[in-house]
User: Fold these one by one.
Assistant:
Number 1:
Amino acid sequence: MERPKNLRITQRTAIIVIILFHVVGLVGLLLPMSRPLFLQIVPWHLLLMLLVTILTHQHFDNRFIGFMALLFVAGVAVEWIGVHKHWLFGNYAYGKTLGVKIFDIPLTIGVNWFLLIYAAGITMQRSRLKSITARVITGALLLVLLDLLIEPVAIHFDYWHWAEGIIPFKNYYCWFLVSAAMLFVFEKFGFKKQGIAAPVLLATEFVFFGVLGIFGIFV
């Protein structure tokens, strides 16, 4: 089922929005005078990226809606297990930056898991890797690398914090396992080849958190 044209945006428009809002957000977070405001709009930034992703996905149908819902619920669930049971990731808790929480878990974390898995899945879909196993493993490793960049930024800007300020190794191998499981689900949904907006989002996240990690935590 094709989405009505008036409810779609072009890949070019999506890429412009993705890059523009990440650049604006980056500048806003790097400047001490504007940082409090930009920290407040972090959840809205995630929702904007969700909207862009939805409006660029081809064949918007019940299968895609089901995938979004499944990843959102799974994302919130694994974080609940992590926060309350410490079976996944380690001993951590969420701060205020990611917005409204239910049972101590920000709802936007479900959005974030969907965005990351979708972006990594599409990136692997567009790669030359023919094996599902290779795509899942490579995509999961990419997300672990991204998490290495996210962690110091997240701690500094009160996304979440770790008990005693120590990031356990468990966090990274759990990120790999959870990401791999979700990417396997992505593969099984069998979406047709998508445009480059999602890979651009993934690449932009690497740049965004890389620059913040280098400069943002020192200003």
Number 2:
Amino acid sequence: MIPDHLDKGLSILFIGFNPSITSGETGHHYAYKGNRFWRILERSGLTPRLYDATEDGELLKLGYGFTNIVARPTKGIEDITKEEYAEGREILRKKLETYRPDIACFVGKGVYTQYSKRTKVQWGFQDDPIVKEIQEFVAPSSSGLVRMSMEEIVDIYVKLADFVAEKNGGQ
């Protein structure tokens, strides 16, 4: 099992589908070598440097946390059951209500549609959040399987970085 990195007062809680087998084995988020998550954070300006998956707990110092809608590691999202999503949806809502991050960033449209049960989803901030007062942001998955260029993905994450910088007084 891979531990969540949660704390009260987070700027962003990144929410994935579920851990990869590699993440499950190493105990670190976004650890699969083909995953672009850490490069996306650096290139978008969300982190001051390129972090490694083994440093995922260090991002709490930047105000960033990690969790997943489903805790069980799998080879792919096709291995997640409807029951796991239903249970994960409730667990995730309780985590959001308890920790109340400024922004819940769903790493993939599918993560958000599973959580919200909404079918029409655009990239970026969403209207009518499930947990009031928590901004919901939908970003592309960082999986190497995503059919978007790195530049397109980074551009969406830049919107998140700009929002956080503005909220923090333009720093």
Number 3:
Amino acid sequence: MKLNCEGCAGCCIDWRPLASTPSDHERRGPGEPLDDAYNLVPLTRDEVARFVERGLGDALTPRLWRVDEETPGVVVDGIRIAAVAGRPVFFVGLRKAPKPVAPFGRDRRWLRTCAFLDPETLQCRIHEADTYPAECAAYPSYNLDLGVETECERVEAEYGTDRLLDDDPGEYEGPLLGPQALGAKLFGYPDPDELAGVVDRIRDGALRETDRAAFVGVAAGSRPGTLEIDDDRAAAATADVLDADSWVGRAIDEWETVAEERGGVPAEFADEPVAEDGPEDGVIGTVAFDVPSGDAVEVARGAPETPGWDAVGDGD
């Protein structure tokens, strides 16, 4: 499989505000995600545990789904959420942050972006690390095998630049689907009563550190193929997430603060460019011009630098 990824990152950025026909592909099927994250990357249990072990547990967040009366579920905070055997089910993925980015040759804009994406080079900071998710490494192979439109094709349709250079999915470890996903990528929260208030916070985009830690702990303590949980392992992982103080978590806090102060949020303002100069007050309409760089926010806090595209071979 050959891809042209330079200047794109369509699979890492919520670029719906830039699209004439935004995709709603994550809101199809029997369940609707409670959050509004775009292209959330589901991690396996082992990947979740690895992030926690590396001190990056504060980079993780859960996803739950709203379902109809015909789908197995439980009601929490007045919302029927997907469940298996009475346990709310969830994925764990990577958090997003508002960053000033310039994908597809456009002017810089505030867009929700994967926490690990360098906003200048549009390269992943953990691409060569052992924490790089298998789902990211395989993308878009799953889509190609399942005959589902890829983010590469969506970008091509919108901007005309060739991104998917061939449609051979190549060799990759197949996706976890069906019962084999339980406890390995799809996890069951043991006590729905504990989620009172949490479901509302997920829907409102206001999750607390303790909320995320509890979900990550359950995922890390899950036993593949079952709903069983190793309580000791779950408790240890929860504690590690609460203790985490990684560059990722600190950078997310900084990006959110800067974006709020300088007009980068809410999402409806994301289609306005980040101007390079402006009036003395530093704001043009809803967007500030004096935004910090990725190096200033992320590398200064310990993030690995990215190599730049000159160091990457064609099709990588």
